[in-house]
Amino acid sequence: MKHFIVEISYLVPLERVQQSVAPHRAYLQLGYDAGLLLCSGPKVPATGGFMLARAESLAALQEFFAQDPFHAEKLASFTFSEFNPVKRQGWAEAWFAEPPAA
């Protein structure tokens, strides 16, 4: 399993982004339900967001986010940075060790 920091950067004014926050969060819930996402949230100040994600490959993660409303509506760009989580809190161990749901 590969682990990633996903960074979202808004490409349009925040007022336009806010119109699609609910569909974006509903789409992210699919990632949570599938075990792809551990956490997500907006940057402060609100110029985009960050997520902690996992997937079999970068291509699989990019495929998932290609359907995100922020991407589909060209509201934001997505950057994927793979990392090796060698240290972590014990309470998160299962998420790092278990494969995502099918």
UniProtKB/TrEMBL annotation:
Gene3D superfamilies in the record: Dimeric alpha+beta barrel
Pfam name, any one? YCII
What range(s) does the YCII-related domain occupy? Answer: 14-74
Q: What SUPFAM superfamilies does the record tag this protein with?
A: Dimeric alpha+beta barrel (SSF54909)
InterPro entries registered for this protein in UniProt? Dimeric_a/b-barrel (IPR011008), YCII (IPR005545)
Name the family: Belongs to the YciI family.
* Name of the protein: YCII-related domain-containing protein
Q: What is the scientific name of the source organism? A: Variovorax paradoxus
